[in-house]
Structures are given as structure tokens and as C-alpha cells.
Amino acid sequence: MITFTVRLKFKAEDREDMREAMRAATEASRKEPGCVTYIPHFVDGDPDTILIYEQYKDAAAAEAHRASAHFKKYVVGGLYQRMLERSVENLHALE
Prior knowledge:
Blueprint: E1 2-9, H1 15-29, E2 35-43, E3 46-56, H2 59-67, H3 69-82, E4 85-91
Antiparallel strand pairs: 1-3, 1-4, 2-3
């Protein structure tokens, strides 16, 4: 299982556009065969920061997600174009 979070920071004036791009990306991502979980969140007290919790069956599924048409359209062509900051945390489950 591949699990990570992505944190994206935007300007307040981009909030509604980013919300719409995130909704479209979420809907399409959840339909991917290798997607286990894709949950975007607004950070409490910071409505201009989105945190996405993602899980994929394996590395190939995560790579397929990044290569998908909807990722290129809504994430690369939308979210990434307006973000001020981006960070990724790779997670490993406790066993």
C-alpha cells in the first residue's frame, strides 16, 4: 500500500476555483481502479490550505494516478498553477 499526504497553500482569492478543481480531481481519482482512498480536507483555521490524504494499492497505481488525464487537467493544469506552497509526506503504517 502506498500512502501519503499532499499539502497545498493558495491565495484567498483563488479559494473557490481551487475548491472546484479539487472536487473534480477527487471525483475522478476515486474512480481509478488502484485508488483506495482519496480524501481532500481544508485545514481547520486555514481555509486556504488543502490537505489530501491518498492511498493506492501499489506504486503502479500511484503512478497511474499521476499519469491520468484528470490529474494533468485539474492538478497540474489547475491546482499547481496557483499554489503558493506544496509539500508531500510519505507515510508508513504501523504494524
